[in-house]
């Protein structure tokens, strides 16, 4: 044993005796790595285990001291005397430690050199041992994946099929969504969920009637009923807003649009919505004037400049605020931590972070919507498909569940809204619970393009030539 930087005085002698007494309590036939840190002692006694044992040592000793103790499996084995020899401590203190340890182990002392190779080998093997992190598994809960990658591999889904089936089996038939044909939506969803080898919205009891997978379970009339039953209604623009939009129809050039929009004088507080619409049109025209979209732009650039009006829309709202920049959803966090409690039999688990979204729309007690964005204008990319069909619907479901907690009687009237941005394309979706246990996703028939040029605005440039939309 090596004891470095300890003075030969009564205080240190007592500390050494304390260390020896604690050392003898570790157990028989064990191999231990003993590292001095504080007075606290942390012992876990198992075969071939590593044990941390601490003793009170001054800071200078802590920086340079390392106790390595090999406790031999045979109680009659010889303990090398060199293990206890160090020039920094007196022979009397050495003898005390040697005798106490040797007596307890009923071992003889020897002058032979210690063999540290077994210890070195064990430490090396432990250092290169592979990590055993538990993988995230998709389950019928609507948000088990806190990262942007929500696609699970086949093995994970196979392991979870029993849990998926159990969730559907707990549903009461009388509370399911029954169609006019006599079919129960949840029963058909269970079949589809168990057929999938990769994560699917049906695993979270989410249904998108436009998903081709449902064509094998429902006929044309049933699919129409799935889309239209208690369908969410998007309100029409108020007359004064509609009038403002229509006023641009006769303008043919960027200059005409610019001077027209600048002719209005809307008060930012008294006419907040009209003022917001005016600023949004002005900013879009500035991007077209300067050819903003002809240069490579990042995801942050696209959100901040092209779609910034979606954030400023809530500036005048008294109830909802917009937060951007990979914000964690509080509702998703609640869903993931619903079984978390104070440690009793086991330690309290770490709180899981909610699903992060690019933009979060939040009220004081709940979150009514979110937005996901990507820089590439590729609506068929894996990112766009995953966010449109999996990540965003699952997040919206968590939000709807959280809102339902505050008003259970309004379950079938609660809606959460999401936006998916794929570069310069926008998709809008609404999640609701029209009947039974099913959450339904309703989205636009097609993506809405941002006016990337005067051609997409349906106007002519100042020199009268049409520009091709790239």
UniProtKB/TrEMBL annotation:
Domain of life according to the entry: Eukaryota
Listed Polar residues bias regions: 131-151, 334-348
Region (Disordered): 131-162, 325-348
Name the UniProt record assigns to this protein: Uncharacterized protein
């Amino acid at each position: 044993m090596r004891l470095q930087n300890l003075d030969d005085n009564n205080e240190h002698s007592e500390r050494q005796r304390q260390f020896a007494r604690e050392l003898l309590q570790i157990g028989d036939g064990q191999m231990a790595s003993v590292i001095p840190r504080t007075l606290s002692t942390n012992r876990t006694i198992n075969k071939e285990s590593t044990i941390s044992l601490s003793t009170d040592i001054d800071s200078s000793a802590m920086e340079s001291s390392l106790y390595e103790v090999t406790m031999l499996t045979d109680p009659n084995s010889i303990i090398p005397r060199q293990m206890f020899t160090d020039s920094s401590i007196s022979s009397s203190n050495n003898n005390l430690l040697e005798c106490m340890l040797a007596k307890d182990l009923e071992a003889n002392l020897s002058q032979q050199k210690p063999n540290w190779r077994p210890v070195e080998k064990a430490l090396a093997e432990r250092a290169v041992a592979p990590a055993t992190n538990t993988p995230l598994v998709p389950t019928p809960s609507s948000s088990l994946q806190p990262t942007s990658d929500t696609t699970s591999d086949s093995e994970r889904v196979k392991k979870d099929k029993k849990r998926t089936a159990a969730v559907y089996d707990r549903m009461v038939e009388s509370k399911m969504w029954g169609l006019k044909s006599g079919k129960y939506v949840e029963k058909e969803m269970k079949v589809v969920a168990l057929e999938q080898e990769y994560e699917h919205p049906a695993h979270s009891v989410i249904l998108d009637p436009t998903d081709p997978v449902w064509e094998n379970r429902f006929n044309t009339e049933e699919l129409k009923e799935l889309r239209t039953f208690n369908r969410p209604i998007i309100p029409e623009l108020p007359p004064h807003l509609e009038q403002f939009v229509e006023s641009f129809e006769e303008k043919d050039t960027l200059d005409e649009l610019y001077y027209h929009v600048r002719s209005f004088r809307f008060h930012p507080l008294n006419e907040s919505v009209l003022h917001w619409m005016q600023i949004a049109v002005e900013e879009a025209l500035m991007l077209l004037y300067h050819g903003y979209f002809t240069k490579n732009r990042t995801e942050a650039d696209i959100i901040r400049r092209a779609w910034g009006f979606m954030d400023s829309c809530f500036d005048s709202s008294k109830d909802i605020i917009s937060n951007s920049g990979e914000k964690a959803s509080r509702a998703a966090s609640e869903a993931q931590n619903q079984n978390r409690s104070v440690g009793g039999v086991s330690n309290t688990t770490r709180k899981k972070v909610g699903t992060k979204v690019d933009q979060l729309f939040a009220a004081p007690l709940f979150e009514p919507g979110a937005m996901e964005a990507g820089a590439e204008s590729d609506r068929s990319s894996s990112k766009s498909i995953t966010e449109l069909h999996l990540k965003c619907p699952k997040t919206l479901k968590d939000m709807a569940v959280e809102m339902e907690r505050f008003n259970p009687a309004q379950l079938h009237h609660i809606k959460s809204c999401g936006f998916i941005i794929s570069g310069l394309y926008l998709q809008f979706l609404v999640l609701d619970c029209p009947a039974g246990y099913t959450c339904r996703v309703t989205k636009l028939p097609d993506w809405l393009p941002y006016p990337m040029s005067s051609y997409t605005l349906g106007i002519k440039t100042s020199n009268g030539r049409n520009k091709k939309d790239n």
